[in-house]
Design goal:
Elements: H1 2-22, H2 26-38, H3 50-68, H4 71-76, H5 78-103, H6 108-118, H7 125-134, H8 138-166, H9 173-204, H10 208-228, H11 233-246, H12 253-280, H13 282-291, H14 294-343, H15 348-364, H16 371-378, H17 385-393, H18 399-406, H19 408-412, H20 420-450, H21 455-491, H22 496-510, H23 532-555, H24 561-584
Helix pairs in contact: 1-2, 1-12, 2-12, 3-10, 3-11, 3-12, 3-18, 5-6, 5-8, 5-14, 6-8, 7-20, 8-9, 8-11, 9-10, 9-11, 10-11, 10-12, 12-24, 13-14, 13-20, 14-17, 14-20, 18-20, 21-22, 21-23, 23-24
Amino acid sequence: MGVELFYVLVGSVAVAAFARWRGWPAPLLVTAVALAVSLLPFVPDVEIDGHLLLNLTLPPLLYSAALESSFVSFRYSLPHIRRLGVGLVLVTAVAVGVVAWLIMPELGLAGALLLGAIVGPPDAVSAAAIGRKLGLPRRVMNVMSGESLINDATSLTLVRVFAAVVAGATVTVWQGVWEFVLAVVLGVGIGLGFGVVLHQIRMRYPDAVVSGTFGLLMPFGAYAIAEHLHGSGVLAVVAMGFYVGYHSPRTSYTTRQQDGPVWHSVDFLLESFVFAYVGLQLPTVIRELSSTDGTRTIVIAVAVLAVVILIRPLFVFASYAWGQVWQRVRLMRFKHAAEAYRTDPHSRRARAIRRRKERQRARLGPAKPTKEAIRRRVFEPPLSRRERVVVSWAGMRGVVTLAMAAALPDLTGGAMPTGHVEVLVAVAFVVTVGTLLLQGLTLTPLIRLLGVTADEERRSDEAEIARMRRLGAEAGLEYLREQQRRWTEEHGEESAEAFKRVARAMVRVERGTDRADRELDRAQDLPRQVPRDALVELSKGWLAVRRQVLLDECRAGNLSEEVMRELFVAMDAEELALDTRGALRPD
């Protein structure tokens, strides 16, 4: 088995690398090649325990996605995400369960609903890859990625409940609701605890290799402990990733620079393996179909696939319309609260509003939310009709569906009748491969046909970058004025001209006409008593001031976190160049 898994890993990575080189969607090509390879007579079956597959692949994939996601954008898009990540999974589970039960009543309603919970959560891996390649608007990507971060928790909770019912336990509706609430609270709490610990390690331990190794291990720990305590391991890993990613700007630049390549490689390896595993399961599914009522299983599989594909656009458009109605209600309540604050400033509600504003001012510091930032907090991000069509068609299933199906014998304790487990596994496989092929192959032409692009968003980002350069230059000049007196006291009056030269070079950097590592080259005739370390310290202080301006504006909601991270990457490169030149060049 070890050699076979090694071959699967190497082959899947090679196929995915070829797909990336050609600009093709890697998940689809890996799945298709694995399907073809599985039909060869000399290729053995590759079977992996479902629990093992889930526990080894889900934590790092979820953590990496949460680490790179914007928590601010996730919070603003939460109405969309909550409806799709919770509501759509519930509706899909019920609809699929009813259809499967009507076609094959001997499954039992609990068994049919168990099937619905298994095929309920979409996997946004391939959809996100296609969206990034085609340049989908950020608000669409936020909805799809955010949905994939929480829908697995909903699905796994439903699977546990329905599996317990199938195994003979008596579970009421309120018990199911309580288990879901408990899973959410425990999962988020454990994840935040692990996130705090990992963030402190990243802040206090200067070795990026050691802190990065802890970052690789702790998602598995958060997932395992949360699941052991009957919490949601998915939400634990997601909460941990959000916390660490949100506080990542406060860590060292070496830690941030290491995160990206490491987690991109982990994602590439695991995603390639998972989609190859999906394709290699074809012979097993065919044998299971032949050993059961194959005709009726195929009918159920096709019917469930049709329900899964059709229910999503219906729910997306209906829930969006309901969201617009609820948004108007919220706006009316917001206006009533503002009116009450103006008419009776001494009321309890008015005092609560003032306390909230004071806490906000204390938290944000010099940055104040603009009207646009406040508007974004009141209104959910709008999605055009074309963007809703794209979201509706991005419902491909993946590793979670297949892993939960493979773990069914353990989940039900062997209580399901002979042949029923095989039916559920076969249907889950057909739905996974069917959505990958039908929706995955047509999503790219659909996006191009609809003309959904991020051109307006890119223009907005350019304007934000220009504004932040101005704010950074203003804060940097104030920093230089404060440092000029200390510089003269430490290095003498004769160094004042050199200070001005370095300061002018820094301003050119902020205007985008130079690089920070060239500042020191412009001051070759500095007095000998001015050490190079002093110049490096001055340059790093300048970078720290600019970073703080970005962070304050982002926390106030005036700057998107994605743009902030883009600017941070450029500043990290500047600091790396300063340290590299300082190490290679003596004073």
